């Protein structure tokens, strides 16, 4: 079917890219039918500007601030005056239109300013953002120092005191322990709000909202209300509860339904005590939190309360798109009536956010007290699920008939459909980037760095028509320079380092943009080879990067070395055919041979039986040897994970699976304190710290 030139222009205007280059450098064209289906998901919303001024304009500090008005008749001279109200400043700057353009002072301060243009008694407004050109980097990076730390899946931590899932109390213990080895940071999985009423929706990368926290991480025993409530303590110390806690603590895999039921019961008892007996100081802190949280907090608390209400009465209430129509929008009359009728329940869920926020802040204070160079780094997921709180309250911002993922590549031959709803880049601009600003601000709270998952999403996202295969998609462009500028502004304001996860098919144009903006790249040791095909020399890694041996999407060192991920992939149908699997296995054997050659070159003797084959032995000793070796990498940051300290095999996630494998449920094989009491782990961490701190 022939495509009209008008529709081709619409594809371009919408930002649907006609082709991309895959990891082999081959040009892949998007089918016209797919582009048409994706165009329909925009609902005609493919333009940002609608007046003389754009809704938002970004300038860089100490550079010319000049832009032309948006007018079809360039020859007609428009006369008018402009006023600029600076952020946090009541004073106004004023001027006149000259040659159909506005020229603002060059020395505007960093921040978000409001421009008002008056032409013939008609007013137009625009947000003016003045940003730095680079993100924040701590002095240690500017001095070329080599830092190190651990990254953890918080839910996977085990202890004698948690309630069957890692919590902020465990995080405090982990921070205190790892700081004893002079670690500079501890990285977290995304701790975004999920679905308390549907706890089995456990993926931290498929959140209900990225602005609020996952309440399952609250350390209930540390809440003053829980400790002081006689009712709560009697319930907690009863045989039934203690038996349940004993079971969920000892489980190797997290039972989210059981854990969440227990925690919500305990939290409910603590909240009852708060309502009746809270100190004036504690109540005031909560009221301030509610005030600062504004409508966004009310949306989240209402969503969680309503979700719980509906789930307790009806089956299959997975998210708002499964609810009765009258409840499918936060702004509806029925939802507002629910808010009036269930004020206490909504306050309860707002209070849970308050408790989570306070405990995360306490973790951050531990980092500061111990003078960790970076402290915690948080992780920002690439999007939100279409059935959660964010999409519920702002449907115009999201294209709900599309989902995002990744095109097919060597590691994911069938592509990936993440089931997340993409933001419409044009509506994002219409809203003057406010949703993105709030998102970044929320995730830079109480941390020293932010890892951005799939940072290529600032440039482009792989859109897939909802319900279709990931193969049937196309890339959609985003305003990358504007988004990086906002990231730089907030990074400097929060004094937080930015790490960009840039794995997979990375377009050349974003590489230089990230580097120039001071955003750290992300390097996986397994994937790094030089032009001769050898395992990349550790001194040839870029300094402006974080290097690791694995991630949540990859096998552990143990699993990688013996090809256990291939066994699991076959078992769960990850590979489309035996040919693809054979290619991947051959590549693995070759990669391992190159790694072993580097170890030999560095006079690292490995145990007998450890070789490049997929039937190779693997031991804790070899595992630790490999981590010690990579610790010498020239990258600014080196990260390692406790799974590899413990020589674990089971992955925490298998991309390309959903319910086939128990993703996001695998726990560590040892309690936090036992990990740090392990002599082998102690020797490893001491050696890593020595390698990093003595590196030139």
TrEMBL record:
SUPFAM superfamilies: (Trans)glycosidases (SSF51445). It catalyses: Transfers a segment of a (1->4)-alpha-D-glucan to a new position in an acceptor, which may be glucose or a (1->4)-alpha-D-glucan. Residues 53-132 form the MalQ N-terminal beta-sandwich domain. GO terms for biological process: carbohydrate metabolic process. It holds the Pfam family Glyco_hydro_77. Its EC number is 2.4.1.25. It comes from the Bacteria. It is an enzyme of class 2 (transferase). InterPro entries: GH, Glyco_hydro_77, MalQ_N. Keywords: Carbohydrate metabolism, Glycosyltransferase, Transferase. One of its GO terms (molecular function) is 4-alpha-glucanotransferase activity. Belongs to the disproportionating enzyme family. This is 4-alpha-glucanotransferase. It comes from Caviibacterium pharyngocola. The lineage of its organism: Bacteria, Pseudomonadati, Pseudomonadota, Gammaproteobacteria, Pasteurellales.
